[in-house]
Every structure is written in structure tokens, then in C-alpha cells.
């Protein structure tokens, strides 16, 4: 059974990489591809992290410790859950998003892979439950993404997402409110992710 799951993990990694290629090619066909900007989207970054983790798990761990792998798997569940939720609530209906997002990439990156990593976590949970307090460290990457995006946006005038752009309606207060809301929801998500792991050990 584990062999089938590992094969599926590798297949999902390939699907994610192919969807990234499709999205890049789609933007190129519209004359809107720019590598730095493309790699600045949370969706692309989170899926690339997921690809790395899926490959490591699919190949049997590649020598990494169980604790490190559990932390990375949990973090990926969080990042792709954020990706799917934010896209569905804040982005999916925006005309500009419908114009520049390839429909296949949309389905793979915002639905298939997020659902898969949750299923993967439940179907083959880590051997021990990571503590909630330590798992809050998973927020380091989303918070770093937020601050880098805001600093870069202030410098260049380009923001990866409209809700991070203080020039939009709501200004900085709007950016702060959305960011705090996503942070709070993420804390709840982490609690749920941790609770889905077995109670073999509460130490981490």
C-alpha cells in the first residue's frame, strides 16, 4: 500500500511541475511572463516546496529524519491550504485572474494539490504528533513572503496580489486586516493539521 502511495506522490509532483510549466507558457503567450514576478507568487512557491516534499516522501525519505519530514509535510499542508483558501475567497472571481491563469494550472495548483497533501497527511500521518507550539514555526515562511512582498512592492510598485497593494481600496488598513485574518485562520489550520496526526508522542 505504501508503494502505491509513494508512486502517487511522485505522480502529483510531476503534475504540479507540469502545471507550473503550463502557467509559465500561458503567460508567455500573452507577453506577460517575467521570471522574477512569476516566482514571486505564493502559489508557485508553495507548489515548488510541495514538489520537493512529495519527491522526498515518494522516494522513501532520502535519508532525512522522521521529525524533519513530519514538519515539512505539515508545513506544506498549511501552505497549500492557505493557497486554496485565499484563491477561492479573494482571487478566483477577479477578471485579471481569470485572464492570466491557465485553467488546468488553476485546477492543479488551487484544488488538486491542496486536496492531495491533506489526503496524504491523513492517509499516512507522521509517526508522532508535532506540538502545536513548535508547528507555529511553519508561519515563518508566509510571514517572510508577506514582508518581502510589501517591501518589494513599495520599491517597485508591483505587488503579487491585489489584497497586498495599499493603493487599492482600503489602503494599508485593508492590507493589515486581510493579513491578520489570514494569519489567524492559519493558526487555526495549524491546530487542525496537528490534531490529525497520531498521538504516539507529543514531543517534538
What report would you give on this structure?
The two termini are 27 Å apart. The protein contains nine helices and no strands. It has helices at residues 2-29, 35-38, 42-58, 66-91, 95-100, 103-123, 132-135, 140-156, 171-195. The protein is mostly helical. The chain is 73% helix and 0% strand.
Strand count, sense and barrel status of the largest sheet are: none
Overall mean confidence score, pLDDT:
93
Estimate the strand proportion: under 5%
Rounded Rg: 17 Å
Number of helices: 9
Number of strands: 0
Shape: globular
**What is the element string, with H for helices and E for strands?**
HHHHHHHHH
Query: Given the helix and strand composition, which structural class is it?
Result: mainly alpha
User: Residue share in helices?
Assistant: over 70%
Low-pLDDT parts are none
End-to-end C-alpha gap: 27 Å
